[in-house]
Write a structure and sequence with these properties.
Elements (H helix, E strand, L loop, with lengths): L3 E11 L8 E16 L4 E8 L13 H13 L4 E7 L10 H16 L10 H12 L7 H6 L2 E7 L2 E6 L5 E8 L5 H6 L7 H20 L2 H7 L5 H5 L6 H10 L4 E4 L6 E6 L1 H17 L4 E7 L6 E2 L1
Parallel strand pairs: 3-4
Antiparallel strand pairs: 1-2, 1-11, 2-4, 2-5, 5-6, 7-9, 7-10, 8-9
Length: about 300
């Protein structure tokens, strides 16, 4: 058994605008790192969390990463003494899959530590338990891309059926994370209880066309199909200057722009790294002009997902 195993899991974009709760995309960075090593007392003990400003619990059964490892121990019938360290590279409540990154990094690190008893897809239910703790439900739209990489589509939860979607290699993301608080409960509460039939039909058409555009490498089809008719109109009041940021992104050359997950981060899809860099600058400049602190990221699509370091 190794002395210590560390794994990194990247940020992810849930929904990708057009696929509410069923589509996800993995970024290359930023992300979270989890390290596991043999401890002195049976069970999982979190010795240190870095980068959370003291906001996350150290008790394993109250921490996303700890819960994942506890479930894996139970499934394997083991009672190892484990010490866990978590380094948060992702801002909390950012709309970039922060809890999913911690859960996935923990699952990958623990799997390697135990000698890889599970395949990557078999790790999904364990990582989902982390999301259950963080969000109240075992969502997989961030977990799946963070773990498996690329762009993933959830066809079904029962049984769990995740489909990897091909995409053009030049596709890049520009992201701006403004220093604005958006509580997940508020973002969920803002959603409509029902959707008119004509809206549901149009949204289904956009999702199908978007996936076709990805698989065919048709940038124009991607651009005119990444439209959210359901969640974004209901949530836009929670994210200041959203329309202004979207206009700036398109003017800078982005294909399309929308809310990342439930926000407050905003992402744009771009054709190439140069276009993504220009777009990120333009998006960040909007918030800077309004005296809102912000961070920007530029990333290609992470084809591999989480990795052992």
């Amino acid at each position: 058994m190794p002395n210590e195993i560390c794994a990194f899991a990247p940020a992810s974009i849930g929904n990708v605008s057009v696929g509410f709760d069923c589509l996800g995309l993995a970024l290359s960075s930023p992300g979270d790192t989890v390290c596991l090593k043999k401890g002195n007392v049976p069970g999982v003990h979190i010795s240190d969390i870095e980068g959370d400003n003291g906001k996350l619990p150290l008790k394993a059964d109250e921490n996303v990463a700890g819960v994942v490892v506890l479930h894996m121990l139970k499934a394997l019938g083991r009672d190892d003494a484990l010490e866990l360290r978590l380094k948060k590279g992702l801002p909390l409540k950012s709309g970039l899959g922060s809890s999913a990154a911690s859960a996935v990094a923990a699952a990958v690190a623990a799997n390697a530590f135990f000698g890889d008893p599970f395949t990557r897809k078999e790790l999904l239910p364990f990582a989902m338990e982390g999301e259950r703790l963080a969000c109240g439900a075992p969502h997989v739209d961030n977990v799946a891309p963070a773990l498996l990489g690329g762009i993933t589509l959830i066809r079904s939860y029962e049984p769990l059926d995740i489909i990897s979607i091909s995409y053009p290699e030049s596709l890049c993301c520009a992201v701006v994370h403004p220093d604005v608080a958006v509580a997940t409960r508020d973002a969920r509460a803002a959603l409509p209880a029902s959707v008119p039939l004509n809206i549901a039909v149009r949204q289904s058409s956009y999702l199908a066309a978007f996936i076709a555009g990805l698989q065919e490498g048709d940038m124009d089809l991607i651009a005119r199909s990444m439209i959210d008719l359901i969640a974004e109109p209901a949530r836009k009041h929670l994210i200041p200057y959203l329309d202004e940021v979207k206009e700036a992104a398109i003017s800078a050359g982005a294909l399309a722009c929308g809310i990342s997950g439930s926000g407050p981060s905003i992402f744009a899809l771009c054709n190439g790294e140069k276009a993504a860099e220009e777009t990120a600058k333009a998006m960040g400049a909007v918030y800077t002009a309004h005296h809102v602190r912000n961070e920007t990221y530029v990333s290609g699509i992470n084809a591999n997902g989480a990795k052992v370091l």
